[in-house]
# Entry
Amino acid sequence: MDVNIENSWKQQLESEFDKPYFKELTGFVKQEYNTQTCFPKGSEIFAAFDYCSFDDVKVVIIGQDPYHGVGQANGLCFSVNNGITMPPSLINIFKEIESDINIPFPSNGNLERWARQGVLLLNATLTVRAHQAGSHQGKGWEKFTDAVIQSVSGNKSNVVFLLWGGFAKKKGAKIDNKKHYVLNSGHPSPLSANRGYWFGNKHFSKTNEYLLKTNQLPVQW
# Structure
């Protein structure tokens, strides 16, 4: 795995790349990609950083694993490639956007357009083996993405963190909520959403209100 990461992130995270855990992680990922089918494709492992530089980050959404079906994952959490059927969680995200801020359901589930506006779409684990959810967990990615969150929390201010579900809330435990705006809700997956833990959270309008209040451009969701 070549750590070909966008320049402003490279400066923020350089010290991580020399740590023993990251070297082990790199070896593991290389071996997996050489011997198994893994997602996303190698050039998209760091896509979340490529589309959204450190300087541009104004919103962070934390996911868990990349999608593990063929053609789905594109390196951005909750996002799928153009022409791919939208997974249920993503459908529920768009349903909430529609009811919250009246933006009609989009024709595709590719969230690259969000990332280009300063939304860091960060999975806790950046790779996965095909059809095996969670198969690359516990190999070092979580340490790396913790460092990413701490870097944003420590070195920026007035960032909106959207923590959906118990996993994201744990992941966001070290965010400084005195200098950032942290919104929690249930996960958009049908299991949580259909129990009333997702719909009506109004995270998208709340995010934009806060961004405007802090002299930042709102996101075109």
In short: Residues 48 and 145 are 11 Å apart (CA to CA). The mean pLDDT is 96. The first helix runs from residue 7 to 17. The radius of gyration is 17 Å.
